[in-house]
Amino acid sequence: MSDSYMQEQAEALAQHLRLTDGKSGYVEATADGFRVFVRKKWPGKPPTSWDGLPVEWNENVGTNKARGR
Fold first, then answer.
1. Segment 5-60, tens digit of pLDDT
2. Which distant-in-sequence residues (6+ apart) come within 8 Å of 64 by Cβ?
3. Quick check: 29 and 3 in contact, CB under 8 A?
4. How far apart are CA 68 and CA 47, in angstroms?
5. Phi/psi of residue 4, each to 5°?
6. Concatenated DSSP letters for 3-57?
């Protein structure tokens, strides 16, 4: 899979999770899947995979980290 494809999927996942305000969190594409960084505990059950790839969750990260892109 190409990096641009992974980046597109990461952005699609961010849209799906509504993490597009630049404050609540972001999604990072990795070689094996995606890492999600969010400021608060995720309400409900977070998705553990996206586009067939694993999603790693990092909750309660600091504001500066949640914004960090």
1. 999 999 999 999 999 888 889 999 999 999 999 999 988 889 999 999 999 999 99
2. none
3. yes
4. 22
5. -65, -35
6. HHHHHHHHHHHHHHTT--SSSSEEEEE-SSSEEEEESSPPSSPPPSEETTEEEEE
